[in-house]
Structure formats: C-alpha cells, structure tokens
C-alpha cells in the first residue's frame, strides 16, 4: 500500500505521500535487517527455539525450505515430532540452503529500499521547493 501511495504522490506532486513512503522504507529496511540477523542467527536469535516469525503461535518454516532450487522433499511418516498442524520432512539436494536464499532476498529488498528512499527524498525536496516558488 505504501508503494502505491508513493507512486501516487509522485504522479500527483504530493510530497506528504512521498515522505510517508520514505518513512515506510526506513521501517522496511529495519524489518529486512532483522530477517537477515534471524536467518544468520546473529546474537541470541535462533531458528530452532525462537518463534518470532509467527509470534509464538506455531512453528515457523520458510517457504524456501521446501521449494528451493534443486531441493528434494521427503515426508517423514509416523513421526513423534510432528505437531497437529505440521508434518515432518527431510530436505536434501538443495543448491543453496534456504537461510541464504532468505538473506539474499532481504539484502535485495534493502538495496531497492535504499534506492527508493533516496528517490523519495529527492523528489519530495523538489516538490517542496516548487510549492515555495
């Protein structure tokens, strides 16, 4: 929604929408930095014991874990580790571990957000200068 408002602000020459978009991008960079730290297990974060991604409501499993490039998923039947709403699997043959795919995706998002932040600040400044003159 913030991206749509940012585009609308650019087309309609509304600097307030661009400023809101820039604030959203700061939050987006923070979230993606957290994702990078989570998957690389920086500090006290651990994927095995922290359910941060689901707010402690269920187990977390990355989509890339089962759908990564070259991954072969095998279900484990009759496992005592499975909860009622989850199934236990083994994943093998992946070209790149899912943690690194998540990190690369978040890094790309940060790069794009930084580019968008610079763009939003510059265009907003130009619009504000035009309003003053």
From TrEMBL:
<keyword id="KW-0325">Glycoprotein</keyword>
<protein>
    <recommendedName>
        <fullName>Sodium/potassium-transporting ATPase subunit beta-1-interacting protein</fullName>
    </recommendedName>
</protein>
<keyword id="KW-1003">Cell membrane</keyword>
<feature type="transmembrane region" description="Helical">
    <location>
        <begin position="110"/>
        <end position="128"/>
    </location>
</feature>
<comment type="similarity">
    <text>Belongs to the NKAIN family.</text>
</comment>
<keyword id="KW-1133">Transmembrane helix</keyword>
<keyword id="KW-0472">Membrane</keyword>
<feature type="transmembrane region" description="Helical">
    <location>
        <begin position="18"/>
        <end position="40"/>
    </location>
</feature>
<keyword id="KW-0812">Transmembrane</keyword>
<dbReference type="GO" id="GO:0005886">
    <property type="term" value="C:plasma membrane"/>
</dbReference>
<dbReference type="GO" id="GO:0002028">
    <property type="term" value="P:regulation of sodium ion transport"/>
</dbReference>
<dbReference type="InterPro" id="IPR008516">
    <property type="entry name" value="Na/K-Atpase_Interacting"/>
</dbReference>
<dbReference type="Pfam" id="PF05640">
    <property type="entry name" value="NKAIN"/>
</dbReference>
<comment type="subunit">
    <text>Interacts with atp1b1 C-terminus.</text>
</comment>
